[in-house]
Amino acid sequence: MGDGFNMSMRKFLKQVGVTSQQEIEQIVRKNDLQGKGTLNVKIVLTAEGVDLHHVVEGTIDLSDG
Questions:
Q1: How many other C-beta atoms are found inside a 10 Å radius of the C-beta of residue 24?
Q2: Pairwise CA distance, residues 32 & 13, whole Å
Q3: Contact between residue 38 and residue 21 where contact means Cβ atoms under 8 Å apart
Q4: What DSSP assignment string belongs to 10-63?
Q5: In Å, how far are 14, 16, 51, 56, 62 from 48, measured between CA atoms?
Q6: Do residues 60 and 41 make contact, with C-beta atoms less than 8 angstroms apart?
Q7: Is the pTM of this model over 0.90?
C-alpha cells in the first residue's frame, strides 16, 4: 500500500480512537459509572459500496484503580 493510503488510514483510525474515547468518558461521567464494574462496548466498521462489516467487542474496566 502507498504512503497516501497509510497516512489517510492512520488519520482515520486516530480520529476513531480519540472521538470514541471522548464519547465513552462522557457517558461514564453522565451516568456516574466510574468505579462501578465494567462497560461492554462494540464498534461496527462498515464502508459504503463494498462488503465490509467488521465488529470489535470488548469490556472496559470502570474501576478506580
A1: 14
A2: 28
A3: no
A4: HHHHHHHHHHHHHHHHHHHHHTT-TTSSEEEEEEEEE-TTS--EEEEEEEEE--
A5: 20, 17, 8, 19, 34
A6: yes
A7: no
Q: Which neighbouring-strand residues pair with 41?
A: 58
The CA distance from 46 to 22, in Å, is 21
- Residue 33 CA to residue 24 CA, distance in Å, equals 11
How distant, in Å, are the alpha carbons of 8, 9, 37, 60 from that of 51?
A: 20, 18, 36, 29
Domain ranges within the chain, ordered by starting residue: 3-61
Note down pLDDT in tens along the chain; length 65 residues: 899 999 999 999 999 999 999 999 999 999 999 999 999 999 999 999 999 999 999 999 999 87
